[in-house]
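user: can you give me the structure for this one chain? C-alpha cells are fine.
assistant: on it. calling the predictor now.
[tool input]
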Amino acid sequence: MKGSRGPFVVARRELFGLLSDDGSRGVTLLSAPAGSGKTVLLRSWIGDAGLGDRVAWVSVERGEQDAQRFWLSVIGEVRAAIGADAFVEKRGPAPVFEGEAVVGRLAAELGSLERPVVLVLDDLHELHAADALGQLELLIARRPPLLRVVLASRHDPRLGLHRLRLAGELREIRSADLRFTLEETQELLAAAGVALCGESLARLHERTEGWAAGLRLAALALAGHPDPERFVAEFSGSERTVADYLFAEVLERQPEEARRLLRRTSIVERVNGSLADLLTGAAGSVRILQELEEHNAFVISLDASRSWFRYHRLFADLLRLELERAEPDAVRELHRAAAGWHAQHGEVVDAVRHAQAAGDWASAARLLADHSFSLWLDGLGATTYALLTGFPPGVIRADPELARVFAGGAVWRGSLGDAETYIALAERNAAKVPDERRPRFEARLGLSRLQLARRRGDFRSALTEAQLLAVEAPAAGEAGPGDDVRAAALMHLGIVELWSARFEEAERHLEQGLALARLGGRPYLEVQCLAHLAVAAGRRSLARARARALEAIAIAEAHGWGADRVAGAALVALGTVDVWQGRFDDAEGWLERARHVVRPELEPATGQLLHLTRGRLYAARGRPEEAAAAFRAAAQIEALVVAPQLMTGPASRLLAQTQLLLGDGAAAQVTLAGLPEEQRDSGMARAALAYAHLAGGDVHAAVDTITPVLEGSAQSLPLLLVEAFLLDAAARDLLGDAQAAESDVERALELAEPDGLIWPFVVTPARGLLERHPPHRTAHSGLLKDILDVLAGSLPSAPASEPAALREDLSQSELRVLRYLPSNLSAPEIGHELYLSFHTVKTHMRNIYGKLGVHRRTEAVERARELGLLAPSSRLR
C-alpha cells in the first residue's frame, strides 16, 4: 500500500509519533466514529514514515461475512508487503476453509520476518464473520515480534483486547485523540486555500469540536465561498447537521448531471463508466466520475487507470438517503438494472445482492441456483450461505432450487443432517421447477445425493445415484456452463467406483473428471482426482501411484492447501506407497500429515485406508500393540460403511495376524469368525488362516489353505500374492522341502521386483529364508539386498523422480527378461532360466534397449529402475 498525502491532508505529527513509537506495544487500535479521520491519518502516516513497501493494507468489505475472503485478502497483502521472495505460503480459495489452521500457519510463517511489517485492517467494524474475528484474535495472540497490527474501526472489535491492555501491549487512539487542534484546523484550511480571521477560525474549530469530517466538509464549502465568515457563523459541524451542509454545499454545487449520477450510483459498492451510464440513462459518466475524483475528496478511484470508483462510506450513506428522498420509486428498478449488469459481466454475488434488494426473488434464486456450485469452488461458500439467508424463509421453503443449493452447501460444510433435510425438501417441491430448467435441477440434485451418500460411506446408494445421474464425459476441448458440476460428478462417480472395486470404470471417470477440471481451471477438483487415481494406480504400479500422489500434493501445496482436507487422500496414498516400499520414515511423515487433515466421518474410505496403512507401518516397525489399535480403528469404520468392496476384509485379516503375533490366538479366531460370509474364501482370509495354522503348528493346513491363492482359484489382490508365496515358503521350509521354499521365495521376489515391494518380506516370518536365499541363483539380487538392509534397520534407496514415458511399452516376455538383467547371469544363463534360446534372449534385450532409449545393460537396469519397472537398488544410495 503506497501512502500519500492528498488534498486537505495535514501531517499530524503528534499522532504520527503515537503510531510510530510502539515500544513493546505491537497492536494499535484506532476506535472512533465515522468521519473521525482514521483512514486519512493512517495513509498520511505511512507516507510520511516511508513505510509504503512494508505495509499490508486490508480494507474490509462492507458487511463482510466470509472469513475465507477476508483472510485471503490478508495473506495476499502480507505476501506483497514482504516481497517477491515471501516465505508466507500463497493460498487460493477453497470450498472448505479451515480457518484456525490457516491462521496458525500464517502466524508461524511470520515468525521468520527479518524486517518489521505493518498489517493495517481498515473498517474492521465491517467484519461480521464471527469465525474470522476469532481467528484474528488467534493471530494477535500469536503475533511474532516484527509484525505490527493496526486496527481501525468505528467501535471496539470483539477481540479480547483487554488481555493486551493489561499486558501493556496495546496502543489506543480514540475520538478525543483524533480531534484536530486549532493549529491543525488552520493548516487544513490553508491546504484548501481558505483563510479565516482568528475569531472565525476559533468558532469553526469550536463548532466542529475538531471533528475531521466536519472540518473537511467546511474546507470544501469555504473554497470559493462568497461570504466565508457568514458560512462559519451558520455551520454547526456536528453529525446531526452534516448531511444538510453536505448536500447544500457539495452536492447542490454540482451540475444536475453529476448530482443525478451520484444519487443513482450510490446503490452500488463500486462503479465504472459503463455501469454508471446504465443507471443514469446517459453517456459520458466516466468523465464526470474522474472530474469528481479530482475535485471532491469523497469520490475515490480504485485503479491506476481511474476507471473504477467508490464513494467515501459516509458520503455514500448520505447519497442513498437523498436518493430515497428525491427518487423513491426509482430505487427498486435501479437495483434490478444493477443486477442485470453484474450478471452480464459474470459478477454473480453482486448480481444476486441487487436482485434481492429489488425484491426480485425469482431472478435472485435462479442466479444463485445456476452458479452456486462454482461459487463454492471459488471459495465463496460463506458468501453464498449469506446470500441464501438473505431470502425470506417462505421463499426458501417454496423454491426447490434454493433448497437444493442449501443441500449442496451443507454437504460441503459437513452438515450431513441438514443436507438430507434440504434434499428431501427439494424433492417434495420438484414439480415447481419449470420444464426448461428441470434437467439441470435433477442433475444437480442427483449430484448432491451422490455427494451425501459418498460422505456417509453408503457406496451402494452412491453407485445407484451415479448410474441414474448418467454422467457423460465431455468432448475433446469442449467447455461451457455447468462444466464445474460435470467435473465434480465425474470425480465423485470415479471415487465411489474406486472404493467399490470397479477399477476400470473408476480410472476412466477420474481421468475424465481430471481433464475437465484442468480445462476449467479447477485445481481443487484436480487434486482429488489425482489423489484417487494414485490409489487406483497402486494396484498395478507403485511408481505410477507415487507420481500421481506427488502431483496432487504439489498442486495442493501450490495453492496453500497442503495441510487442508483436500490433500488428505493424496497424503495417505503416498504414505501407503512408502510403507509398501519399506521407506518407513518417509511414510510416517506423510501419514502424520494425513492424520491431521483426514476426517473419517466425511471420508470413511480414506480414513479406513489411513488406519490400515498406519497399522502396516507399526507392524513393520515391531510395534504390534499400536498396529492392533490402528487395525481396530479401521475395522470400526468398515462396520459403518455400506458395501465398500475394496476395503472389506483387510482390517480384520491384519488385526487377526497381529493378535496371533501378540499370542492371543483366541482373539484372532473371533476376529476371523467375524468376516463376512462372502469374504471367507478370499485370498485375504486364506492368508490370515494360513498365519493362524503356522502359529498353531499345523503346517500342512497352512499349505492347504494358501495353495488356492497361489494357483489363482481364490480371489486375491496382486500385492497379496507376494505375502502368500512367503507364507507357503515358510511352511515348506518347516516341512523340510528346501527346494520348494527357495522356489517360493524366488517367485515372491519376482512379483515384488517391478514395484520394489519390501513390506511383505518384513512382516512375514521369512527372514531366515531370505538370508539363506542363494544370491548367485536369484535374478533379483538388488531387491534381496534392499530387503535384508531394511530388516537390518537400514533405509532402502530413495525413489527416483518421475521420468519421461517409455517410447513403447515392454511386452510381457521382455519384462521377464528385464527382471534378470540386474543379476550376474549371462544371456545364455538367462535363457536357461526362462527356457528360451540364446538368440531369443538377445532379441528381447535389443528390444528392451531400444524402448528404454539406452545402449548397454547397465544403462537399461538404471533406466528401468527410474521407471519403476525394477526395484531401486541399495547400490544407488
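assistant: here you go. The chain is about 60% helix and 5% strand. The longest helix spans residues 438-455.
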